[in-house]
Sulfotransferase domain-containing protein
Amino acid sequence: RRKTSVSGNAAEVFRTIDGVFIGKHFPDDAVRSTLAYKPRPGDLFIVSYPKCGTRWMQSIVYNILMDAEESSGPLDIVLRLPFLELQGGEAAMYGPRPAAFKTHLSFQKHPYSPDAKYIYITRNPYDCCVSFYYHTRNIQSYGFENGTFDEFFELFLQGRVDFGDYFENVLSWYAHRNDPNVLFLTYEDLKRDTVQGILKIAVFIGEDKAKKLSDDPELLKRIVRNTSVENMTKKVPVSHQPPKLEDMSESDLGKRLRPELLKGVRTVIDFARKPRTGEFIRKGQVGDWRNHFSPEQIRRMRERIAEATAGTDLMSLWKGVDIP
């Protein structure tokens, strides 16, 4: 039977929690504790609208923080790079340091402190829409496995997708792009000059990290290598067999984790155990929109962009990028 729950019945898939339009696979208490989290001095957040380069940014930041050392395993990554809306504010409060906390929240909803740092990465709306389509189709919780790009495109324009409207999210952070504790980057710029991007991120994280990279060209090379799309796709295999994290027993988790972190890690494990129909990291390309958008969809996206970004110069971010 054809299933397109996302378009057919959004109420089955999403709900609004304290103003955040979000999938039901995100636990209520995790979302609420994330919204209520009070950032501490030195906290580092990686923020984006979905499918704008978050996973790549996490990989870069992790490698900078850990001096490109191989992780001790998937549990370490889940604890040091927690997805707060899935794992809850406790993951930020009680997890190991150094760490970087991932969220997809708009600036207005985001836990904020002038003493915390925020790396925001965005991507042009055309490629974001295409990538988000595959993501939504691949993840069982959305019930969209037979959904078409045409159907998803309509939802994207309406902001009836996970985490709501693309433009609202991006514009909310764009307004703060010059704040001293915000580093605002585009996926396309990072792709165009990855080395410069990594150095910029390191400087933002801390002078000590930047110095290490400038003193040790081999370390920089290792980070570039570790965070390449080829390397990352190798580490996120398409498989219906759960990887090692999912195979950890309850008693093993209980021994290794403080109680406050257990619930969030269990949520990640449950989510990872659900079958997927494709890769989490797909192509990592700029310009894949050309393979999906019809002339009419281009016209309508341009219209939506004009309406949503009126009075701003947001689209100048992609001046040199081949988009309509």
About this structure: The domain at 10-318 is CATH 3.40.50.300 (Rossmann fold). The chain is about 50% helix and 10% strand.
